[in-house]
Amino acid sequence: MGQVSRVVSGNDTSKPSKSLACVETYAVTLGNSEFYVPEGQQFSPRKTVEVSTVLNGMVRNDCGEPLRSVTIHINVLGDDGKRGEGSVTVSELGPGEAKPFSKAWMGRVASYEIGRIQ
């Protein structure tokens, strides 16, 4: 959870790229966590509890060939109406293999959407 995504304005300036249609995500859940420690403050006493939301899920390679890595782009909507985005990369997926993935955001996430998978 050391790489927590920050909430952004929603302006996406990234280049569009082709999505891997043969890679499936499933069993995706959102859970609140009070255990996020901001980067650089691991050894400092916590003054306040900061709530973060952790998205956990599984990714499976149904492509029929090994993949070096899979990057899952995720769009989220906070309970305050702010939009955010982030990505998580899963390394080396063999044909038919599934692996877990996890991504955290500061604040409370109300909903998510799996964007493109590369």
Reconstruct the topology from this structure.
Elements: E1 23-33, E2 52-61, E3 67-78, E4 83-93, E5 98-106, E6 109-117
Antiparallel strand pairs: 1-2, 2-5, 3-4, 3-6
Condensed summary:
With 118 residues, the chain is mainly beta. The chain has strands at residues 23-33, 52-61, 67-78, 83-93, 98-106, 109-117. The chain is 0% helix and 53% strand.
Describe the structure.
A hairpin with a 4-residue loop joins strand 3 and strand 4. By secondary structure, the chain is mainly β. The strands form 2 sheets. Strands 1-2-5 form a 3-stranded antiparallel β-sheet, with no helix packed on it. Strands 4-3-6 form a 3-stranded antiparallel β-sheet, with no helix packed on it. The radius of gyration is 15 Å and the shape is elongated. The model is unreliable at 1-17 (pLDDT under 50). The relative contact order is 0.33. It has strands at residues 23-33, 52-61, 67-78, 83-93, 98-106, 109-117. It contains no helices and 6 strands. It has one domain: Immunoglobulins (Immunoglobulin-like, Sandwich).
